[in-house]
TrEMBL record:
<keyword id="KW-0560">Oxidoreductase</keyword>
<dbReference type="Pfam" id="PF00180">
    <property type="entry name" value="Iso_dh"/>
</dbReference>
<dbReference type="InterPro" id="IPR019818">
    <property type="entry name" value="IsoCit/isopropylmalate_DH_CS"/>
</dbReference>
<dbReference type="GO" id="GO:0004449">
    <property type="term" value="F:isocitrate dehydrogenase (NAD+) activity"/>
</dbReference>
<protein>
    <submittedName>
        <fullName>Isocitrate dehydrogenase</fullName>
        <ecNumber>1.1.1.41</ecNumber>
    </submittedName>
</protein>
<dbReference type="InterPro" id="IPR024084">
    <property type="entry name" value="IsoPropMal-DH-like_dom"/>
</dbReference>
<feature type="domain" description="Isopropylmalate dehydrogenase-like">
    <location>
        <begin position="4"/>
        <end position="331"/>
    </location>
</feature>
<comment type="similarity">
    <text>Belongs to the isocitrate and isopropylmalate dehydrogenases family.</text>
</comment>
Length: 337
């Protein structure tokens, strides 16, 4: 069966890293069919809206999308397109692996292998209740966590632990202060953990987690947490292993999944051809796994590691002088079946 994938090239460095990623996927000869759809600033210019219905229809039909970063204009009342996409398809699990890679100029080129499982649809990212006083003297926002939403993300993390042969799930919270919203999450996590006696479970308060991650990241295996904490912790994990150019993110729901890089559209380096394509490539590897191409995903990851090991055409964020495309070509040269 031919697998069709919705491809969203996105804004800023988006088209550059997507070209690089598709170049590598094509070299793997997987028989994937790409259906291009627009979102972000480019869609606003072409179609007059940031997230056209045709794009939602394409993702709904194919159930799998590979997406470059999107720029949401600040001001003008636009709500984040990424948040809209996650909400529309109920992509409740955001899975962000941070694994040590060789030659990254980071503090931890070995020993880190952490998957952050971030709740992706509720928490501080709830659409409701954003209010600022007319005179700007106060602002209020609502954080809403549900029992059902908390249970399903924690269950996802434990199921992932079993599937991926992981040993431990750390539940990260701030229930000592945020007694209601973090409390409901922690209580749900404690109950769900009882269903998985084979997986070790511990609890950690988010501020201590940040310190522990920087000091002793090797103690972590899978982290499960609420939306905002997951956003922050996964960027911290990116910093441990060499930066945002190396962390992918899968947004997974019951009926659809969107695979991307964790980073944004990087306007400071857009158009220069120097963005690191690895994060999106690793997102493509997550996508291959999701559609059942497990061996192919492993082959793609191995080619990325081998290229890093050889310091072949690395981009400037990794200390090299390569370009997005020369790096991709070096990886493509190592993925042939
Ligand atoms: P950013 O992730 O775009 O950039 C942060 C820093 O990391 C910059 O110095 C950038 O040059 C660097 N960087 C990011 N990706 C890189 C790569 N592949 N290779 C080398 N260096 C890389 O974050 P920022 O500047 O806060 O956001 C820029 C725009 O991206 C905003 O409009 C934001 O809304 C959007 N954004 C979109 C996301 C998505 O579509 N999933 C996620 C995060 C931000
Ligand atoms: Mg983020």
């Amino acid at each position: 069966m031919t697998q069709t994938i919705t491809v969203i090239r996105g804004d800023g460095i988006g088209p550059e890293i997507m070209d690089a990623t598709l170049h590598v996927l094509d070299a793997m000869k997987l028989g994937l069919v790409y259906e291009e759809a627009d979102a972000g600033l480019v869609a606003l210019e072409k179609h007059g809206e940031l997230l056209p219905q045709a794009t939602l229809d394409s993702i709904g039909r194919n159930k799998v999308a590979l997406k470059s970063p999107l720029t949401t204009p600040v001001g003008g009342g636009f709500s984040s397109i990424n948040v809209q996409l996650r909400r529309h398809f109920d992509l409740y699990a955001n899975v962000r692996p941070a694994t040590s890679f060789p030659n990254t100029r980071s503090r931890f080129t070995e020993g880190v292998d952490i998957i952050t499982v971030r709740e992706n649809t509720e928490g501080a990212y709830t659409a409701e209740g954003q209010e600022t006083a007319p005179d700007g003297s106060w602002a209020v926002s609502i954080t809403r966590n549900t029992r059902k939403g908390s249970e399903r993300i924690v269950r996802y993390a434990f199921d992932l632990a079993r599937k991926a042969g992981r040993k431990k799930v750390t539940v990260v919270h701030k229930a000592n202060i945020l007694k209601s919203t973090s409390g409901i999450f922690l209580n749900a996590a404690r109950d769900v953990a009882k269903e998985y006696p084979d997986i070790e479970c511990n609890e950690m308060i988010v501020d201590n987690t940040c310190m522990q991650l920087v000091m002793r990241p090797e103690q972590f295996d899978i982290i499960v947490t609420t939306n905002l904490f997951g956003d922050i912790i996964s960027d911290l994990c990116a910093g441990l292993i060499g930066g945002l150019g190396l962390i992918p993110g899968a947004n997974i729901g019951k009926d659809a999944a969107i695979f991307e890089a964790v980073h944004g559209s990087a306007p400071d380096i857009a158009g220069k051809g120097v963005a690191n394509p690895c994060a999106l490539l690793l997102g493509a590897a997550q996508m291959l796994e999701h559609i059942g191409m497990v061996d192919e995903a492993a082959r793609l990851r191995a080619a990325i590691v081998a290229t890093l090991e050889a310091k072949d055409s690395l981009t400037p964020d990794l200390g090299g002088t390569g370009t997005t495309m020369s790096f991709a070509k070096a990886i493509a040269g190592r993925v042939a079946a």
